Amino acid sequence: MAKVTGRGIAAVNYPTGMNLGGDPTIALIHASTSGVFNISISSVELGQGLKTVLAQIGAEALGVPLETVVLHNDDADTGPYCTGTFASRTTHRAGNAIIAAAEEARGVMLEEAAELLAVEPGELATDGQGNIVVRSTKQSITVAEVCSSAHFVHGRNISGRGIFFRAKSPVDPDTGAMDPDSTEAHACTVAEVEVETETGQVRVLRLTSAYEVGRALNPRLVHGQIVGGAWMGVSHTLYETTAPYYPLIDHAPESFSEYLMPGPAESPVIEAEVLGIPSSNGPYGQKGVGEMTANSPIPAIVNAIYDAIGVRFYELPVTPEKVLRALEERRQSATLEPATAGR
Amino acid sequence: MNEGNVRVPAGDGPVGASVEQRDSRWHVSGHTIYVDDVILPGMAHMVLARSPFPHARIRRIDLTDAQKVPGFVRALTAADVPKNIYTILGLIGFGLDEERALADERVRYVGEPIVAIIADTRVAASEAAKLVRIDYEELPAVFDVEEALAPGAPAVTEWGINAFNFDGRPFRQVRFGDADAAMKGADHVVEGRYQMSPIEHAPVETTGCVVRPEPDGRFTVWSNTQALNMSLDLTAHILQIPTRRLHFIGGTVGGGFGGKVDGMVEPLATLGAWLTGRPVKYVYSRDEEMIVSSTRNGVRIYMTDGVTNDGLIVARKVRSYIDCGAYSRHTPYAVQKHAANLAGPYFIPNAAFDIYCVYTNRQPSSAMRGFGVTEASFAMEVQMDRIAELTGLDPWTVRFRNAYHDGDLRPHRKPVEDATLIEAMQAAARLVGHRLAPELLAMSSKPREV
Amino acid sequence: MTESITVRFVVNGVETTVFADPLTSLQTVLRDQLLLTGTKAGCRQGGCGSCSVLVDGRLELACLRPIAEVEGRRVETIEGLSAGESLHPIQTAFVENFALQCGFCTPGMVMATKALLAENAQPTKDEVIVALSGNICRCTGYEPILAAVEVAASRLADGAQTGASRERR
Lengths: 343, 450, 169
Known about the structure:
The complex is a heterotrimer of chains A (343), B (450) and C (169).
Chain A: E1 3-16, E2 25-31, E3 37-40, H1 50-62, E4 69-72, H2 90-117, E5 124-126, E6 131-134, E7 140-142, H3 143-154, E8 159-164, E9 183-196, E10 202-212, H4 219-238, E11 269-275, H5 292-295, H6 297-309, H7 320-336
Helix pairs in contact in A: 1-2, 2-3, 4-6
Chain B: H1 24-28, E1 44-50, E2 56-62, H2 64-67, E3 72-76, E4 106-107, E5 113-119, H3 122-130, E6 133-138, H4 145-149, E7 172-176, H5 179-185, E8 188-196, E9 208-213, E10 219-223, H6 228-239, E11 246-249, H7 266-276, E12 280-283, H8 286-291, E13 298-307, E14 313-325, H9 331-339, E15 351-359, H10 374-391, H11 395-402, H12 421-431, H13 438-441
Parallel strand pairs in B: 1-12, 10-11, 14-15
Antiparallel strand pairs in B: 1-5, 2-4, 2-6, 3-5, 7-15, 8-13, 9-10, 9-12, 13-14
Helix pairs in contact in B: 6-7, 10-11
Chain C: E1 5-11, E2 14-20, H1 26-33, E3 52-55, E4 58-61, E5 74-76, H2 89-96, H3 106-119, H4 125-131, H5 143-157
Parallel strand pairs in C: 1-5
Antiparallel strand pairs in C: 1-2, 3-4, 3-5
Helix pairs in contact in C: 2-5
């Protein structure tokens, strides 16, 4: 009985956006009389932090404090169209739409401020603290005052509209030529595993990765995707299946006692560095990250198992049963032939 | 069409900061309203009677015993559905009108919905659903993708061939350069057969919705769909009502991972609310979520690489079988995404890919985190290590040598943009203390010098 | 179907009476009758822990507990830990450590943490893992949850205010 360790690597890309495009997202922004900015969208939050990061983008693009931005995404009557949350598309599309809407709203806001301060809009800056400042003189006025004045003095509408849309790409039926995605994120994962040869159990000890995501708009949320995705990658590689004897449908799990996933005791140490090399078209250079994080660990673990025990697995999940059968098979063929040189 | 907004954030502004999640105080206090937390006066519950067989004809449906269960309100069958075609991709002109909202004469997977029972309580609806008596004539079933494509296989589809049609072919093809010639000229050929298992999304919150009929003819639908507008459009289409009659509310989901994009529950629940005049809740039980709700595709990939002695992949031929189960749903989309990512982050000058969407008598697959790409990355990264072993290179070197650069053409003929694989690998190597050779450290993703 | 019975028990400090079939789960009574929907229904199979509550201070799965057996007992749900903006230190630790994403498992995780720390104020990492091993999270990979529990433990040990109203419904 032995515990054998091994290391393996994997390097992957992941595309941002609904494949082939044709997936619009629209955002609307309007200001209240007292400087609260409402962003209306129909993009769905799954827990990845969409509402948070989109509010951050809106506040940054408007040049106003984050706490004055309210985001609504819960009503398809009042929220404009969004194709949906999938394909690592949403922050990219909705973020870009919000920036476009914010530009328009901000333009009207600065026009109003310029009139109040008797300057040209181009002379103004926002300080992100709720003030609009004349760059040269430091004279300032609050965003709240400007919004009130726009409503009640000059009749300006501080609001904006934005859309992000990539026209749907055709696919050439003979060559497969197509334009499928907006940008690519990349990752490299190194997995360290320990295989217990008597039980067939594989333990992932550590996953060390570099994730290149364009720009981490909210580092803790990116980290959340990295850790959650890595855990799901481990789960895919070693535990989960709806068809334990695929392609047969027998023994399909019906509960969590049959559909196994690793618990906190089985989770590896996860270390990751996030690189930000801005994309050519994401909001502030962002690239989608939610799916890639589950992909790179999977082959890294399989490659690490090979490094540990010299058995390469081609079918997932790599369960203890599969490991034991493979080790047994190798033992049997070794008894029939002289041992070959190591792998 | 706009090109996006690549700006630089202020640095001290919100972008780039680890701002607290907007929902977190709601979530930790149990204050968030998820779909199953919507409880309305007079609300009825919907539970489905489903096929126990992977393939069968429906001969007779008898509701007599179900109707006797105390609390029984109404049963819906295929005849009640105004347009009994479920068509998630059909809305965008891509998929097929092949699946029913409620099965009429044939069922093609264990769990396929046949009768929707509405009752005063969830327990009563479950009881009644169990008492729906259906006479079936079992049919031969097929579960293996290659068997399903062989002549004489049981026909899962109506048109007899168990493959989705892509522009006149039973597969999507990519052809770039001359893979056959390049393969012949290669120093080594590496072949592999890779198999990814179907996976259940298993969000802790199951799929579901609540629908309330309003006095003005509208329906308010609380849904945990990942796509509010697509689910709305699909519901309108199946019920043959104008979209203005549907008011979808949602946007906060207890885990999705791609499993809540199919829009399976809203059409039937809305129909139930319409026909009973009562609010209807239709939320999957956990076993339904596991057995019935869509899964990640099982994918079988045959990948053959022609490799030089220096470890460069000069040709890649792939035949992939993506198991869509009984109905194609989003899988044709996955086929195209898979096709676009079979060279991964590498430059491969000659490629021939044939990717099938294959029908079997299994619970239908649909979108899941990494859709179409997870399996491609798995196959090619295991294959990469085999290439390394074969050519005597270490696993890092072989990947650096094949990594794509900005401007390289990918097999689907799109030039690479925003390439950063090399930089990601350099960072990972540094993190684990692996010393890369100087020429690898000197590499970058910038366009190759001609 | 059995005859419904009256069951009297205390929920978050409030004396409560319900009328239900004796086998109805505590989970169903809490959610459908008392509208305390913070206790979730992730599986109704005892497998996910999202319905975790405290009964007489002990961590229990509300989906597996028939209401008849709750007679005379003291039940605590997630709603009992906070009042308005004022959060329990465990809740604050979860928020600050990003120990949640979709939030669906979170009430159960918080209740499991409360049960643990009431019994063991300075748990080791392994003890935390065991205490939370009945709660499934599909989003976070558990790491930030374990970190949050550690932070909560040290804050409570330092005498952080719990301040939760016991009158809240």
